[in-house]
């Protein structure tokens, strides 16, 4: 990862899934700071540093984003599209973590610049692999 | 003792000799007897006698009357093998006599004792057993002591003489027997060749002794004998001859052996030898020789060829006729030379076989073969061979005769040929065939190279060959020949006179030699020309050719005129018939060509001739001369009333003698069918004008009638059809218009007929009419063409048009006909239907899209809570496992399992739905690589878990790869899942190709599927193994089936429910 102090941004609307993700990260000994966005809009806000995320020091650009696809209002795909449209985020590592094993979703996510496509539930091993 | 025995004892005794000996012996004995008492007082005489007694080599003994020996001198003692006097003195003399002579000796002894002198030859047996012959002279004497009569015997040992005599006797006997048995005479002649000894000396030979041969035989025979005997004497070489001896009374033949006789010093002193009377044998031989000579002269006088063969089949003698006939020396024909040299090559094999069979069977045989004469001609011979046997039945030679049967054969062949010819010529009526057959037969019979038949045009001196048979390779000469190019006038004149000309050699015969070149071009070496004269002179010529010169046999030439006459008459008759038939034929052809029934009758109306059309008209073949003209037809008038026969035109024609024309009538055939016809009967008259019959032509007008009826019927149909039916000419001008058209278009027929069809065509459709016409011209029709037309009231209507050509009777297109049907209603309902379909399609598509969304939601939203349940339950176990009470732990495990199952169920349903919805596009998929990839990705298919064997190569199939992968994965997963506990799954995969499909088999060693449930196995949610050990959602195989069906394939299963299952999935082959 580019910056050792940069946090992880976890974009997940389901608290259980979030719990499981965080638990897996813990088990994978990932000690990076974590920010959570519970929907797409919040994630975009975070990444663009608007509203409550305007303070860059408190909400630095994350070293990686774990992005759920199926979320209310703004879906993971829309987030990916938005990230692609942001030149300053061209190096952002977005890992899609979704419950969909549909091939079409995988293809679409990877086409939109996702670094990896993980199907839930995440395991510590997979997470440590993807963060290496 | 009998006198004969006495006499015998005297035999061989010299007269006087015996008496003298006995007297001297008696004196000596008397001296001896007084020897003992007066030993010293002997007188000188007595002493002398005593010396004689003692020293004589003869045995002297005195025997007393009782037979006891009184004294015996030393010679006597030696003879009886006594050592001393004491051995014999006092013994009975008879003991010393051989038993067979004892009686004779006793007789002699008695006689001597009675005072007689006697002699006797006898044998004694010595004391040691030796036998000796004795000759005794016995005389009476007084016993020196007793004074009684005694017997003085002087005995000589004659043993050796006796033996010699015996031997001589034996030899003489043998000689006698020998000479008696074989009429042999032994002879000796001295130096002057005078006979000195002859044995046996037959009385008639006695006068020959002392004479020479020439004295005995005062002729050449005697001289010859002397000459050869002199030669033997001169040369010392023996000779043997058979010589005759002719005496007035008889002639005797001797086999004479002449040997030189030599003296002891080796000088030739004469001749000796034997003469064997062989007269008998000689006579026999002579008789035989005479017979043989007679036989030879007979055989040589025979016209036959005679031969003899040795038993082994080699010819050893041939009569001189062989040489004369064949011109080959006998020696070259001996052995098997005859077979090779003079037997016809075609007959050799048969002859040899027949001959060998006869030799093997030892039986007489008959055989026919051809023997070559000195001039090269082969002639037929009949051969009869028979074995000649000796007295023991052994074959000593074969005797045979060959009789020339050539002329017989020829005559026979000629007769056969004539009969063949007649039979063959009778087999056909065609003159060409007759000529061809005759030429072929002639060719064969005369072994001719060519046989021609020619017509002669004497005025132009031409011969036109009209039939020719020739050997292969010869030129065809069926052309007209100029006679003068081949024949001199002399021959032409001969031929004109009807005489047969035979030319043996075209080149050598002075008559044809000048034309040799002309013959040469046709390869003719010899020929026979046979003319046949008719009342108009020489018109026909038969020619026989041979390629090589030959000598035509007089017999052959003699046959020719008869043959020529037969063939010619046969050809002429056939030609006449043919000419007649040709005329008849033309008439016949004309009649047959007529489409109308034509027949003739006699004056009584009986059918005499008819054509095929008449047969068709009547419906049967009439009986010539029997059937009447109406031939079992029933006749009616055109309006159906019965027509009496006598009112018929034909009857009228016959009755009234006039032609009748134009009356229509109906005939009913026996089968009930009716014919409309018009008869045209015309009477036939003879030269004198009498009616001899009639000719009738029946014109069948049934078809015409039927056509008329059909046309009327058709017109009615058209008129009353609901469809608009109308026609137009090629210009488009309307020619007909039915009621239907009136109704459809609103125009009345009168309004549109004559106007152009374009009045019916609205704007935008004007090009249709020319297009229809073009298609019609191309021979096509237009069917159910849907378009729009305009009514009289300008309204438009939908019509379906069927356009077809209108043709005239010759098939020419003269217009088009159209059938138009109003389809306005149909078009309207079709438009409605299309609209409905579009609407439904849209709603379906919408439903499908919704379904898509739904399944996506299911996949995502339905699974999310399950995942949560599973994740949290798993976390609880992981994080608090040790602290959880065992019962609670069980519950949590159940929660995990249920969540897993729920998740699997959802995923399977998604898979099934995806497979169902996926729009599959087929492409070649390599099964080998696909299956390798599947196996490598799934832990349950790894080698340590399951043994998976693939019979590579599996080959490519046409499939949708994701669907196929899904299906194969499910099959493999099932195969390794449903096994008995503790069993290692063994799975085998292979493919079979069949009818353009590839069937992939997945065979396992698992539980199998009960055949009862197999039909349900591929349905959704069907599970056949309910044990909790075998988890499943019951969707996997439904997915497999759905996938296979989507790809145009099938799935299936073979299992007995016990020992594993064999699942298969069949897909189109990618190699087609």
Secondary-structure map:
The complex is a heterodimer of chains A (132) and B (1072).
Chain A lengths: L7 E4 L3 H13 L6 E4 L2 H9 L15 E4 L8 H10 L7 E6 L4 H9 L4 E4 L4 H8 L1
Parallel strand pairs in A: 1-2, 1-3, 3-4, 4-5
Chain B lengths: L2 H8 L6 H17 L10 H12 L3 E6 L4 E4 L1 H6 L5 H4 L10 H15 L4 E8 L5 E12 L6 E9 L1 H24 L1 E6 L5 E5 L3 H4 L6 H4 L3 H16 L3 E8 L4 E12 L5 E10 L1 H23 L3 E5 L5 E4 L1 H7 L3 H4 L3 H6 L2 H17 L3 E8 L5 E12 L5 E10 L1 H21 L4 H15 L4 E8 L4 E9 L9 E3 L6 H8 L4 E3 L12 H5 L5 E9 L2 E10 L7 H40 L3 E6 L4 E4 L1 H7 L15 E3 L12 H8 L8 E4 L5 E12 L5 E10 L1 H19 L3 E6 L4 E4 L1 H7 L3 H4 L15 H10 L4 E9 L5 E12 L5 E10 L1 H57 L5 H32 L5 E4 H11 L9 E4 L5 E4 L1 H17 L8 E9 L2 E8 L31 H11 L3 E6 L5 E8 L4
Parallel strand pairs in B: 34-36
Antiparallel strand pairs in B: 1-2, 1-5, 3-4, 4-5, 6-7, 6-10, 8-9, 9-10, 11-12, 11-15, 13-14, 14-15, 16-17, 16-21, 17-18, 19-20, 20-21, 22-23, 22-27, 24-25, 25-26, 26-27, 28-29, 28-32, 30-31, 31-32, 33-35, 36-37, 37-39, 38-39
């Amino acid at each position: 990862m580019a910056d050792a102090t940069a946090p992880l941004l976890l974009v997940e609307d389901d608290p259980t899934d979030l719990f499981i993700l965080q638990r897996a990260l813990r088990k994978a000994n990932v000690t990076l700071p974590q920010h959570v966005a519970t929907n797409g809009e919040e994630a975009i806000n975070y990444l663009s540093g608007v509203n409550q995320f305007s303070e860059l020091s408190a909400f630095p650009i994350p070293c990686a984003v774990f992005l759920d696809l199926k979320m209310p209002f703004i879906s993971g795909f829309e987030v990916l599209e938005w990230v692609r449209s942001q030149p300053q985020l061209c190096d952002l590592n977005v890992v899609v973590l979704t419950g969909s094993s549909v091939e079409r979703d995988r293809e679409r996510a990877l086409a939109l610049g996702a670094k990896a496509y993980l199907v839930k539930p995440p395991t510590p091993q997979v997470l440590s692999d993807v963060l290496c | 003792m009998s006198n004969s025995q006495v006499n015998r004892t005297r035999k061989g005794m010299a007269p006087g000799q015996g008496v003298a000996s006995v007297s001297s012996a008696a004196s000596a004995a008397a001296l001896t007897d007084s020897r003992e008492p007066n030993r010293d007082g002997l007188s000188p005489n007595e002493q002398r006698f005593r010396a004689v007694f003692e020293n004589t080599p003869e045995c002297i003994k005195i025997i007393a009357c009782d037979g006891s020996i009184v004294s015996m001198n030393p010679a006597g003692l030696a003879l009886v093998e006594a050592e001393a006097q004491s051995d014999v003195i006092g013994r009975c003399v008879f003991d010393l006599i051989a038993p067979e002579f004892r009686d004779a000796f006793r007789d002699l002894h008695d006689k001597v004792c009675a005072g007689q002198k006697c002699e006797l030859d006898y044998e004694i047996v010595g004391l040691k057993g030796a036998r000796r012959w004795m000759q005794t002279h016995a005389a009476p004497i007084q016993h020196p002591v007793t004074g009684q009569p005694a017997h003085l015997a002087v005995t000589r040992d004659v043993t050796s003489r006796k033996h010699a005599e015996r031997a001589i006797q034996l030899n003489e006997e043998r000689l006698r027997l020998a000479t008696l048995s074989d009429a042999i005479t032994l002879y000796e002649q001295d130096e002057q060749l005078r006979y000195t000894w002859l044995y046996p000396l037959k009385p008639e030979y006695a006068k020959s002794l002392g004479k020479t041969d020439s004295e005995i035989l005062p002729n050449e025979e005697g001289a010859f004998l002397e000459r050869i005997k002199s030669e033997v004497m001169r040369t010392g070489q023996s000779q043997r001859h058979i010589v005759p001896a002719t005496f007035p009374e008889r002639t005797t033949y001797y086999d004479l052996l002449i040997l030189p006789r030599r003296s002891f010093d080796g000088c030739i002193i004469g001749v000796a030898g034997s003469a064997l009377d062989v007269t008998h044998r000689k006579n026999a031989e002579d008789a035989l020789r005479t017979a043989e000579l007679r036989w030879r002269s007979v055989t040589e006088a025979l016209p036959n060829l005679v031969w003899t063969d040795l038993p082994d089949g080699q010819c050893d003698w041939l009569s001189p006729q062989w040489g004369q006939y064949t011109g080959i020396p006998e020696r070259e024909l001996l052995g098997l030379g005859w077979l090779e040299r003079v037997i016809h090559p075609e007959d050799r094999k048969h002859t040899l076989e027949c001959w060998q069979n006869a030799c093997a069977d030892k039986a007489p045989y008959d055989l026919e073969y051809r023997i070559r004469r000195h001039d090269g001609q082969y002639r037929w011979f009949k051969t009869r061979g028979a074995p000649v046997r000796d007295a023991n039945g052994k074959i000593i030679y074969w005797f045979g005769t060959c009789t020339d049967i050539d002329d017989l054969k020829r005559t026979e062949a000629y007769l056969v040929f004539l009969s063949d010819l007649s039979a063959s010529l009778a087999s056909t009526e065609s003159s060409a065939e007759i000529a061809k057959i005759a030429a072929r037969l002639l060719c064969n019979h005369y072994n001719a190279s060519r046989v021609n038949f020619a017509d002669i045009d004497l005025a132009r001196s031409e011969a036109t060959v009209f039939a020719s048979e020739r050997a292969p390779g010869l030129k065809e000469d069926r052309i007209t020949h100029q006679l003068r190019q081949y024949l001199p006038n002399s021959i032409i004149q001969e031929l004109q006179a009807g005489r047969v000309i035979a030319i043996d050699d075209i080149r050598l015969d002075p008559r044809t030699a000048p034309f040799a070149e002309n013959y040469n071009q046709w390869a003719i070496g010899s020929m026979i020309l046979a003319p046949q004269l008719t009342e108009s002179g020489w018109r026909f010529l038969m020619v026989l050719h041979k390629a090589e010169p030959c000598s035509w046999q007089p017999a052959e030439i003699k046959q020719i005129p008869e043959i020529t006459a037969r063939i010619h008459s046969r050809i002429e008759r056939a030609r006449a018939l043919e000419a007649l038939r040709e005329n008849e034929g033309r008439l016949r052809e004309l009649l047959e060509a007529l489409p109308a029934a034509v027949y003739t009758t006699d004056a009584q109306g009986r059918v005499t001739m008819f054509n095929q059309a008449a047969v068709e008209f009547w419906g049967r073949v009439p009986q010539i001369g029997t059937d009447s003209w109406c031939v079992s037809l029933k006749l009616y008038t055109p309006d159906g009333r019965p027509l009496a026969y006598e009112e018929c035109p034909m009857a009228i024609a016959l009755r009234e003698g006039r032609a009748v024309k134009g009356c229509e009538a109906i005939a009913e055939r026996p089968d009930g069918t009716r014919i409309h016809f018009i008869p045209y009967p015309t009477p036939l008259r003879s030269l004198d004008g009498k009616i001899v019959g009639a000719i009738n032509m029946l014109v069948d007008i049934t078809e015409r009638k039927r056509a008329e009826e059909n046309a009327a019927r058709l017109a009615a149909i058209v008129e009353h059809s609901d469809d608009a039916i109308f026609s137009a000419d090629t210009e488009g001008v309307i020619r007909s218009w039915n009621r239907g058209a009136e109704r459809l278009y609103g125009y009345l027929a009168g309004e549109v007929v004559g106007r152009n069809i374009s009045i019916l065509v609205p704007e935008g459709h004007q090009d249709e009419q020319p297009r229809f016409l073009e298609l019609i011209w191309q021979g096509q029709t237009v069917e159910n063409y849907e378009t729009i037309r305009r009514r009289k009231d300008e309204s438009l209507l939908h019509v379906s048009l069927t356009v077809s050509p209108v043709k005239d009777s010759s098939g020419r297109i003269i217009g088009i006909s159209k059938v138009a049907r109003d389809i306005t209603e149909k078009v309207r309902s079709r438009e409605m239907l299309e609209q409905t379909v579009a609407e439904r399609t849209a709603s379906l598509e919408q439903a499908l899209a919704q379904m898509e969304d739904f399944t996506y939601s299911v996949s995502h939203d339905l699974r999310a809570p399950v995942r949560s349940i599973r994740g949290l339950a798993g976390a609880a176990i992981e994080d608090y496992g040790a602290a959880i009470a065992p019962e609670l732990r069980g519950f949590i495990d159940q929660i995990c399992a249920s969540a897993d199952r729920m998740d699997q169920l959802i995923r399977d349903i998604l898979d099934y739905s995806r497979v169902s919805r996926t729009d599959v596009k087929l492409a070649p998929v390599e099964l080998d690589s696909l299956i390798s990839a599947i196996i490598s990705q799934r832990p349950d298919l790894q080698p340590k878990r399951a043994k998976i064997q693939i019979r590579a190569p599996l080959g490519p199939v046409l499939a949708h790869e994701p669907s196929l992968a899904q299906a194969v994965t499910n099959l493999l997963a099932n195969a390794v899942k449903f096994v008995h506990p503790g069993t290692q799954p063994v799975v085998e995969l292979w493919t079979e190709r069949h009818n353009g499909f590839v069937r992939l088999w997945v065979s396992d060693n698992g539980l199998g599927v009960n055949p009862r449930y197999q039909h349900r196995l591929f349905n959704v949610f069907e599970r056949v193994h309910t044990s909790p050990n075998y988890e499943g959602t019951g969707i996997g195989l439904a997915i497999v089936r759905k996938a296979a069906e989507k790809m145009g394939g099938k799935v299936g299963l073979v299992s007995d429910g016990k020992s594993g299952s064999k699942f298969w999935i069949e897909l189109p082959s990618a190699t087609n």
